[in-house]
Amino acid sequence: MTIFFVSLGCDKNLVDSEVMLGILRAHGFTLVDDEIEADIIVVNTCSFIHDAKEESIQTILEMAEMKHSCRCKALIVTGCMAERYKDEIMTEIEEVDAVIGTTSYQHIAEVVAEVLEGQKVKQFDDLQAMPEVDVQRIMTTGGYSSYLKIAEGCDKHCTYCIIPKLRGSYRSHSMDYLIKQAESLAAQGVKELNIVAQETTVYGTDLYNGQKMLPELLKRLCRIEGLSWIRVLYCYPEEINEELIQVIKEEPKICHYLDLPIQHGSDAVLKRMGRRTTQAELRSIIGRLREEIPDIALRTTLIAGFPGETEADHQEVLQFVKDMRFDRLGVFTYSEEEGTPAAQMPDQIDEAVKETRRDALMMAQQAIAFDKSEEMVGKTVDVLIEGRLPEEDVYIGRTYRDAPDVDGYVFVHAEEDMISGDIVKVKITDAQDYDLVGDVIYEFTE
Ligand code: F3S
């Protein structure tokens, strides 16, 4: 039996997809990369914002066609949209044979078997369940870079966010489970491990007497042979403590990179968002990080057009972006999500205004990002090679400053062949907007 798998949404969802793929392989299914050849199709969906929901629905509809025109016998929808719209998906799209919730993906093989016997299945466990599956994940990220999901759910309840309703309250995976997972990934050839969760900075508080255990977890991960880069994503700024800063500073394997989503820079908007920081506190933590780790690359995300955002609020966040000179920045327009407090707030902003404000923030950042790229010219940095451009002697890679998928690349000229996953020293010779160009430095010893 053949399976075709589509994984949408974030890297946390991707980890679930890789676990499901591992379970299916262990049950004898063969993965194919063309839906036309699939007996079973699984779509692991996202339901975060309007565009993500649209993409999920479009993908399910496209795959539903396969049941009429190709050999597909079973269409299964998993993940966040399945969790949120379990009944609607089954009733509105008759080709869907099963829906599986966000805490039930470990049952994928049983569900497939039931569907093949002709049943329609809804598989949902308690939203607070904590699947820990002892299976070798199938990596979809090239084999040299992967994600370690250290916790499930979220307790922050930002007023715009639906995720606690899709993924439950915050639960950490035990440290032993995570170390075992990381060792298995390293044994499969992973060099770069990206630490993810809805929020990584409070890791362990639910398991270890309220103690924040991310620094300890990072230290233990650094001892794993084979891992070269460990990168921490999704840090809530107010939860960053001295111990974490010192571990990032002192452990050579930890990338001098932090992703700290701040969402806004106006105190009034931050308060309505349910965020727990003020602009002054954000300035203070960013200053502290840069003081202790001068070469740290900081990524953040912002939301433009939150309900009630005034032109003055917008100007304030614009100035904040100019002052902070983030290394990386993503800006989303606010998406009104049914079932969240923000959707009920007065003074929802017109789409056109949201887009204008997003564009203004991105334009301000573009100038900063191009300057930051220029500042890299002449420096020598380690680059993780990810592949080779077709028909050219140019390789593509990333520095510690670039997280997979979201940041820039380095185009690398090399005299000798390299393979994906090699980490080489590169002298940066040019900057092209968000990307860099450089030559491999060969170090010869007598
Ligand atoms: Fe989407 Fe669910 Fe991730 S809503 S962003 S796939 S946690």
**Whole-number radius of gyration?**
22 Å
Structural class: alpha/beta
Shape: globular
Number of helices: 13
Order of neighbouring strands in the sheet with most strands:
2-1-3-4-5-6
Distance between the termini: 56 Å
Question: Which cofactors or ions or other ligands sit in this model?
Answer: FE3-S4 cluster
Unreliable residue stretches: none
Helicity, as a percent range: 25-40%
Please summarize the sheet with the most strands: 6 strands, parallel
The portion of residues forming beta strands comes to 15-25%
Strand runs, count: 19
Give the oligomer, counting copies of the same chain as homo and different chains as hetero: single chain
Mean pLDDT: 95
Task: Please specify the SSE layout and strand pairing.
Blueprint lengths: L1 E6 L3 H16 L3 E2 L8 E6 L4 H20 L4 E6 H5 L1 H7 L5 E3 L7 H9 L4 E3 L21 E5 L1 E2 L10 H5 L3 E2 L2 H13 L4 E5 L17 H9 L6 E4 L9 H9 L3 E6 L7 H6 L6 H14 L4 E8 L6 H14 L3 E6 L17 H26 L3 E9 L5 E5 L11 E4 L9 E10 L2 E6 L6
Parallel strand pairs: 1-2, 1-3, 3-4, 4-5, 5-6, 7-10, 10-11, 11-12, 12-13, 13-14, 17-19
Antiparallel strand pairs: 8-9, 15-16, 15-18, 16-17, 18-19
The structure holds FE3-S4 cluster (F3S).
FE3-S4 cluster binds next to helix 1 and helix 6.
